[in-house]
Amino acid sequence: MRQLLIGYDIGSSSVKATLLDADSGKVVAAKGLPEVEMSIDSPQKDWAEQDPELWWNYIKETSKEIIAKGQVKSGEIKGIGISYQMHGLVMVDKDLSVIRPAIIWCDSRAVAIGNQAFAGLGSEYCLSHLLNSPGNFTASKLKWVKENEPENFEKAHKIMLPGDYIAMKLTGEILTSESGLSEGVFWDFLENNIADKLLNHYGIDANLLPKAVSSFGEQGRVLPQVAQDLGLDAGIPVTYRAGDQPNNAFSLNVLEEGELATTAGTSGTVFGVSTKPVYDPLSRVNTFVHVNHRKDNPRYGVLLCINGTGILNSWLKRSFGDQSLDYEAMNTMAAEVPIGAEGLSFLPFGNGVERIMENKHVGAHLSQLNLLKHDKRHVFRAGQEGIVSALTYGFNIMKNMGLNLKTVKAGKANMFLSPIFREAFVNMNNVSLELYDTDGAQGAARGAGIGAGIYAGPEEAFQGLVKIQDFEPDTQKIEAYGAVYQQWENCLNQVK
Q1: Residue in 405, 140, 379, 397 with CA at minimum distance from that of residue 286
Q2: Is the pLDDT of residue 37 over 90?
Q3: How is 213-226 classified by DSSP, letter by letter?
Q4: In 335-413, where does DSSP find H-type helix?
Q5: Distance (Å, rounded) from C-alpha 196 to C-alpha 76?
């Protein structure tokens, strides 16, 4: 009998399910839905919400498809892993019904609340105990609900992160993890416990938070009725959960100090691992508990996030093309113009406030546009170079924190499918880039294998991980891309 694992990845653009053969480490079946990007509701400026039931419906649909495609037999599935969009707020009542739409990661409504808490609690406490400003994270979003929707706050039985909600739907158990609590800024790193001082400051009862369990290990079992809805056996254990960025790092086997992972989907990220609780004094990049963290063997994940990444490329596709224009054609057109797009610079900060901009709404800007010279080819190239420049800006912050940025791992997906993006990335940052055939859902499945005891540890779990390509900086292009970045930073300094 085969040993199979399921990994779910609940993103803000799509929900993906992957069926993995635990013995070979190979994907048996995978499915992502919807076919187009999932909608994000914005009832007011800078708000971003989604209905958690939408995620659950796609979980059901993708599950049935991979079970059928993989011709799964009863008893073959040994564990389920869950990856999810970070920093979201899901609230349920005593009947476990959702009270209001989820306030997701790119929602900016709680920025002022987090800033006030940083000032009120003091930078010394926030940075030494929380490793972050309370900022626009889940705790501050919950405080916003308390202040602005008291009737919903009073109904709340528990609050969860998006992945906690999916685990609850599968098992009936309301749990989270230390990693999850830290990403919501509910965790006190010095006390190694719930951040009571922050909760008291916000007037939030700690009983609203779920109990924390390890990222790896049994976290409940699939309920009989749910099993019928998804085409699964009842009793399959959920054995792994993690936010999408720690999980992306895990999916690339980035678990030790000095290792780095990156993504370039709707948002762009770099995730570095440290054994020390480092922090940026301005909280432009953020430190959380990594999935393999233990009190006696700590691992911290330092996260750089650029909200305006793939969403800029998507906007350019919609705005400058017709239905026949695809990303490959955009890349071909962008390659027709030289490095630097003949002086055109693009600031990609058009998807809410940006953490690296100290939670300010800088906005997207196209700078030095020459109507006699530039056309959409230049705009396409400037867009990709602008995204890489924003990541480089964050890279420099991470370097100043002491992180070693030499080799970066990524899945071959999203913006990393673009030759121009890859070239700009390795040369502007002077790093080696390794691309792997993996994604968040695969990572979640491998995590489930460790949590279920099928794998003794990461070494066994990643035997099936395939490296596709290596990219090295080109000494003849490093200087050219350095000039691109310098011009980009000059544009940024004029607007921020």
Answers
A1: 397
A2: no
A3: E-SBS---B--HHH
A4: 376-400
A5: 43
Check residue 39 and report its DSSP letter. Answer: P
- C-alpha closest to that of 147 among 184, 110, 118, 199: 110
CA quadruple 313, 384, 33, 352: dihedral, nearest 10: -70
Residue type for position 172: G
CB atoms within 10 A of CB 238: 28
The mean pLDDT of 401-421, rounded to a whole number, is 91
Q: Of the candidates 405, 355, 361, 349, which has an alpha carbon nearest to the alpha carbon of residue 132?
A: 355
Q: Cα separation of 421 and 402, whole Å?
A: 26
Cα angle vertex 235, ends 232, 241, to 5°? Answer: 85
pLDDT digits (tens, 9 = 90+) for 302-311: 999 999 998 8
**In the predicted structure, residue 67 carries a pLDDT above the cut 90:** yes
| The predicted structure's pLDDT at residue 185 | 97
Grouping H, G, I as helix, E, B as strand and the rest as coil, residue 91 is: strand
135: helix, coil or strand?
A: coil
The CA–CA distances, whole Å, from 396 to 104, 283, 382, 476, 479 equal: 27, 14, 21, 22, 17
Bridge partner residues of 92 (DSSP): 98, 158
